[in-house]
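Researcher: Before we compare anything, I want clean individual predictions. No alignment, no superposition, just each chain on its own. First chain goes here; please echo the sequence and then give the structure tokens.
Model: Echoing the first chain and its structure:
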Amino acid sequence: MTQEAEIARTMAYVEMHLKEPLSVRDLAQIAGYSPFHFHRLFLAATGETPAAFIRRRRLVEAARELAGVGVRALDVALSYGYDSQEAFIRAFRRQFGVTPGHFQRLETTADLLASPPHLVAAGGSIMEPRIVDGEALTLVGMIYFGENQNGEIPKLWGEFMPRVSRIPHRLKGASYGFCFMDDRINPDFWYMACEAVERVTEVPAEMVAKTVPAHTYAVFTHRGSTEALGETYHQAYKVWLPASGYELAASFDFELYDDRFNPSDEANSELDIYLPVRRKV
């Protein structure tokens, strides 16, 4: 079965189980991938994370039910897994820009109700990465957990960069945006704004240290605005990886920001995306 078919199968599974508990781990098992690999493939294929897709589809179907006569928002909220009406109202307003009560009073709601996304076509030439052997890294930085719905990752960098000088023994010249999964903590995803250090003797307050073993990497160079990073990830995970003879070797990837990266002139800026890979047996 192709990756497109596996992702489509998980999307269909979500559609049939919107009122039941769903997790990235469950969907990854259905598709036959690790949770991290599945998350990246799903994002590349649909333009949405699995969690965002599930949330949006639940809210759209909840909105369709709210359009019925005599339907209570609380009953709909509970049926779609929300713990309280207040949590449902907050999520509904973020999705549609209006509260459930306001929605029920609208004369027409068709424009607010989006259909499920289609798989993104993988047309165009394949972006060829460099294959490099990377040494082990020790990273120190600040962590964000979530889906970056409101620009939390840029905010994290804004908080981290003024504190960089506090990191002892840091190796100057590059910063890292490290995205990883740790099932022992939570089966979801973490982003770490960080820098490499020679050794760890002290970790500043509000920061953590993480050691990354040596890996072989496929390195993709992204040119231009960071707002278009998703296009390069799409090329890496959905276009290049399936045809490459390689497979993902670990549950992380990272962005490397060195002296080629210039946030004040992104049109002429570059950064690298590192995927840990190994040859398929």
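Researcher: Okay. Second chain, same rules.
Model: Second chain and its structure:
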Amino acid sequence: MKAIQVERFGGPEVLQLAELAVPQPGEGEALIRVHRAGVNFADLSRREGVYGSRHLPQIMGVEVAGVRQDTGERVVALLLQGGGYAEYAAAPEHLVFGIPDRVSDEAAVALFEQGLTAYDVLFTMGHLKAGETVVVHAAAGGVGSLAVQLAKLHGARVIAVASSESKRALALGLGADAAIDAGSSGLTERILEANQNCKVNLVLEMVGGEVFDQSLAAVAPFGRLVVYGQASDIPNQVSTDDLMGGSKAVIGYWLWHTLEQRDQTERTLERLFSLNQQGKLQPVMGAVLPLHQAAEAHRQLGTRQPPESFF
């Protein structure tokens, strides 16, 4: 089979097309003929060797959609150790989920990791209620764009945060009520201004550093800030005085804890897939590229263009 293999960590140029044996599924695994493999920002860190498995050589990619070879069922799956940038992949059974009719392979991949994260940070962890105001950072990205749509469907007011005019326009087109610049300087004031000079009920935060601090300062009493990433690589500390003095909560989220609860994951995916079938929830996706252009997909994603899928 054809696959994209990494023999050393580095830039996009280390993604090399190789001819390899079809993987043999072990106990508790399913062999999938890959139709689409997702490309996300975590893949760039894996390629550089700063995140995920460090064994070499390795096949890149952790999100795939395709067909189970034992049942013929269309499925989406997550691969713990990579292997998705290939024509075939072996996935753990507990991380393989069926795709309903009228949900495309591309949409299924986007709604898996990114959709589960968006849903959980809004509702499972953030407890968003209709009529509340939520701030969505990186609102034009994979998770953020889905969070904007889900929050609006739930009856919330959405303030989108994005780094460029085009991204802010995209967030407004997805239903955001306001869109503001992502720069950390003066961020608290911009959030308050966008919310009629009132503090907000919920913030979805994945940058860290000054953006975290400025966002927390904009949270109202009984409000929540949910952390699900640290793109700046700058950690933060919160004092108990800050929390008690503001009657606010800081909540962490990690997708793997959701995936350990298969029943919960299935229920959420069913909701997301149903909304997509109804035309109410549309992932933001870039071009679909062939497998041999994996390096180009990484280059484009590195310039903060939309997430992509490829053969």
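Researcher: What stands out in the second chain?
Model: The first helix runs from residue 41 to 48. Additionally, The chain has ten helices and 16 strands.
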